[in-house]
Automatic annotation (TrEMBL):
Protein name per Swiss-Prot or TrEMBL: Uncharacterized membrane protein YccF, DUF307 family
NCBIfam families linked: PRK11770.1-2
Alphabetical UniProt keywords: Membrane, Transmembrane, Transmembrane helix
Domain of life the protein comes from: Bacteria
Organism the protein comes from: Streptomyces aidingensis
An annotated GO cellular component: plasma membrane
Transmembrane parts of this sequence: 7-24, 30-50, 62-83, 89-109
Domain Inner membrane component, first and last residues per copy: 4-53, 68-118
Length: 132
């Protein structure tokens, strides 16, 4: 079932989202100072291609630099990307068959708001306790 949902997602939303995140990542790499956000953009682009069967977790040991970077990202791009995901989710929720895709868009909002200090893991990976 995951494979079918991922293929349909790829056709209806995934390709466009992944391209958007990849372009943002390239721009971040060109600006050199924003390379950490570029890496996060490429990580999210891969997640946007094939989201079913994966989840976002916090990375243990991500400290103050990730927090500061996330605040900058939130102000510059995160809010706008989250609004885009919310709009797409609402559009998918209009149809019954689109509900899983709307949920997938809602699942991407937290990582699009604060991408640094996160990792994307398969859903069958056991939860690891956070190390402080």
């Amino acid at each position: 079932m995951r494979t079918l949902l991922n293929v349909l997602w790829l056709i209806f939303s995934g390709i466009w989202m992944a391209l958007g995140y990849a372009v943002a990542g390239l721009v971040c790499f060109l600006l050199v100072v924003t390379i950490p956000w570029g890496i996060a953009c490429f990580r999210i682009a891969a997640y946007a291609l094939w989201p079913f069967g994966y989840r976002v977790t916090e990375r243990a040991g991500a400290g103050a630099p990730s927090l500061i970077g996330n605040v900058v990202w939130l102000i510059v791009a995160g809010v706008w990307i989250a609004i885009g995901h919310l709009t797409a989710a609402l559009a998918f929720f209009v149809t019954i068959l689109g509900i899983p895709f709307g949920i997938a868009h809602l699942k991407m909002i937290p990582v699009s708001l604060m991408p640094l200090g996160r990792r994307i893991v398969p859903t069958d990976t056991p939860y690891a306790p956070a190390r402080w």
